[in-house]
Design brief:
single chain; 472 residues; seven-stranded mixed β-sheet; alpha+beta; 23% helix; seven-stranded antiparallel β-sheet
């Protein structure tokens, strides 16, 4: 571990508990293994360090993804003995190395010697990889690292310095970036980006260097030059004098043309301002790993054959089991027991993720935790409540059948029928099975709402024969 590199390390933009340093072609990545960033979205692990998804390495076109975590049931063992095999720099996986000193994990990628293998997804070229989640000695901690370039993109090694030269902008700052891009944080609630750039038909794309404001909000702005014109000329006229939202897809984003904005036949000057409020957000990203602050909703024409794509986001806070449990409790407590019995687990999950403002892949991450929270909630109720629910479902199933059908009705068939009706509200499968069996036995042998028929078979539960007499 290079002590000089660690001394000069700086926070990785958008990451948590990650420092990076560059020495010539070598990128050093550090994290403190003693940190606890809370429970992951799956509820099974404690996060120690993360990039929050794949994040750009400056202007190199490369991306870095890193997660360091441990099992939620195990405490980390950070001793000289458990890390002894990593006291010297060792090969980590493919074209990357690692080392542990004290509580500090150091990983290193030498971009003079990288992999160049197409990933199994076919969408990127791997430069370095841990080859999955690797155990950090015998500490009980796991680490997964991937560094890649999107397929078809060129890796710009000469721009490695931009990895550690990313600007971090705070309130009151104005920072000039590349190619005429300027970022100004005017107040806690207003950020304005300005772009003024002379282009020709030969210019296909333009990208603003990565920038971070207020320490954790990453800004991405891309320009593309094409031949499609802005649909609404009225909107174009409005944006000459005031800030306006160009599309219904835009979230917390306004645009105004600058005085020099003009162009035709594939050449001219692009001059515009973007403005957003960094205190607002429109929910988690599709992956669930970041919170969207402002977005153009993909590529959008701004007129004069120019398209932009803008996104401002920050790492999403990890949901604790307590938060999910509270959300489940709020969803279920607001409903009558009759409603709860009709809710499926899928419906409960959708209600909870709506309450938590989640979407996309994050649904998969919380499903298991929601199921566990539903179980805890139902077990907190009186056992008789769950049994009454099962009994009601059995009565309903019996009421739809003729007497001869009941004689051949199996418990397996009955369970398959009532389980969807009871939905997520009944807890463990074995508990449901026991309650259904008990309800069936009551139908057979003694509840005052059910009567046996002459042949020893079942009458429909809850129904009495005409005339109010009992058949014997």
């Amino acid at each position: 571990m290079e002590s000089s590199a660690l001394a000069n390390a700086m926070p990785f933009p958008g990451g948590k508990n990650i420092l990076v340093a560059l020495e010539e072609s070598k990128l050093y990545i550090y994290c403190d293994l003693s940190q606890d960033l809370g429970t992951t979205s799956s509820g099974k692990s404690i996060l120690i360090a993360t990039t929050g998804g794949s994040k750009p390495l400056g202007a190199t076109n490369a991306f870095l993804g890193l997660n360091v975590f441990r099992n939620i049931t195990e405490e980390p063992k950070l001793t000289d003995e458990t890390t002894s095999k990593l006291h010297e720099m060792k090969i980590m996986g493919y074209y990357c190395m690692w080392q542990v000193k004290g509580h500090t994990l150091c990983m290193m990628i030498d971009f003079e010697n990288v992999w160049g293998k197409v990933a199994t997804t076919g969408n990127s070229v791997l430069l370095a990889s841990s080859g999955g989640n690797k155990a950090v000695g015998k500490t009980g901690i796991l680490c997964g690292l991937n560094c890649h370039v999107p397929l078809g993109k060129e890796f710009f090694m000469e721009k490695l310095s931009t990895i550690v030269n990313n600007d971090v902008v705070s309130v009151g700052d104005t920072v000039g970036l590349n190619e005429g891009f300027v970022v100004q944080v005017e107040s806690e609630t207003q950020v304005t980006l300005h772009c003024e750039y002379e282009y020709t038909r030969a210019t296909r794309r333009l990208a603003m260097l990565p920038v971070v404001i207020e320490g954790d909000i990453s800004l991405i702005l891309l320009l593309r030059f094409g031949d499609k014109k802005l649909r609404s000329e009225e909107k174009a006229e409005q944006m000459k004098t005031e800030f306006a939202a160009l599309s219904s897809k835009w979230k917390n984003l306004l645009l105004r043309y600058g005085p020099n904005h003009n162009g035709n036949n594939g050449r001219g000057i692009v001059d515009f301002y973007l403005r957003f409020d960094p205190t607002q957000f429109s929910g988690r990203s599709f992956s669930g790993k970041s919170v969207t602050i402002s977005s153009s909703g993909g590529w959008c024409s701004i007129g004069n054959e120019i398209f932009i794509m803008f996104n401002a986001h920050k790492p999403a806070p990890h949901l604790s089991h307590a938060e999910i449990r509270r959300a489940v409790q709020n969803v279920l407590e607001s409903r009558r027991m009759e409603e709860i019995t009709s809710l499926s687990l899928k419906k409960v999950v959708m209600l909870v993720v709506t309450a938590l403002n989640l979407k996309g892949n994050s649904l998969v991450d919380v499903r298991g935790q929601v199921k566990e929270a539903v179980k805890e909630y139902m077990e907190s109720l009186e056992p008789s409540v769950q049994f009454k629910m099962a009994k009601k479902a059995v009565n309903k199933a019996f009421a739809t059948r003729k007497r001869e059908e009941l004689a051949t009705l199996s418990l397996k068939t009955l369970l398959a029928e009532v389980t969807p009706e009871l939905g997520a509200a009944h807890g463990e499968e074995e508990t449901l099975k026991a309650h259904v069996k008990e309800a069936v036995m009551q139908c057979l042998w003694g509840d005052d709402r059910r009567l046996r028929s002459k042949g020893g078979g079942l009458r429909v539960c809850g129904k009495r024969p005409s005339g109010g007499t009992t058949e014997r």
